[in-house]
Design goal:
The chain is α+β, with helices and mostly antiparallel strands. It has a five-stranded antiparallel β-sheet with strand order 1-2-3-5-4, covered by helices on one side. The chain contains three helices and five strands; from the N terminus they run H-E-E-E-H-E-E-H.
């Protein structure tokens, strides 16, 4: 298996500021935070992307993410946050171990969606309609 920093954190071979841990899940403060309280939540089992984890395990993970987020926001006394998850190099996944970012957003903080780093693409209505049809037909073929 390829060396994975998150697997090393799970095995306690690399340091982390762990804020939650149970048999299946670990949450720790991001070492390069985008905001105060920026937290990473991971399954302890190594999965590279969202498509690799079972539905049952993903449901358990999301339930814990909600629990962790609620506690984190209460401590920080904020109500807003981003929940971010990247899959693969083209989507900026830096660590290839499934993980979710909980990024608390206090009032007045800038959202990454509002800066010029995010480039929107222009797609015609006809192409959007065709894509919608193809995606819906693909569900039917499963």
């Amino acid at each position: 298996m390829v060396c994975c920093i998150f697997c090393n954190i799970v095995k306690k071979e690399s340091p982390a500021r762990i804020i939650y841990e149970d048999e299946f899940i670990m949450a720790f403060l991001d070492a390069s935070p985008l905001s105060k309280g920026h937290t990473l939540v991971i399954p302890k089992q190594h999965y590279a992307t969202l498509l690799d984890i079972s539905n049952l395990e993903l449901t358990q993970l999301m339930t814990k993410i909600q629990f962790i987020t609620t506690n984190l926001l209460n401590v920080l006394k904020v109500t807003d946050f981003n929940l971010l998850q990247n899959n693969g190099p083209s989507a900026s996944q830096a660590v290839h171990h499934l993980h979710f970012h909980i990024i608390p957003r206090p009032p007045g903080s800038l959202s990454w969606l509002h800066n010029n780093a995010v480039k929107r693409i222009n797609i015609s209505d006809a192409l959007q309609d065709e894509l919608c049809l193809q995606i819906n037909q693909n569900y039917s073929s499963k």
